[in-house]
TrEMBL record:
Residues 42-71 are annotated as: Disordered. Residues 45-57 have a biased composition (Basic and acidic residues). One of its GO terms (molecular function) is calmodulin binding. It comes from Falco tinnunculus. This is Neurogranin. It comes from the Eukaryota.
Amino acid sequence: MDQEGACTKLDEDILDIPLDDPDANAAAAKIQASFRGHMTRKKIKGGEIDRKTKDAECANSTRGGDLRNGD
């Protein structure tokens, strides 16, 4: 039994999705945005310790001037 070229029902359903459908594109954009947000939150949560260290370094910095005014 050669299954190499065979498509399953799920594969056929996936291939039937029209790529130029505005509703499908909107749904895909929402899914992608949610995933990117999830990964960003995960990255930020994992880097909280690093951020605290960087905040301490910034507070101890000797650089003077107001960055808003270009000093």
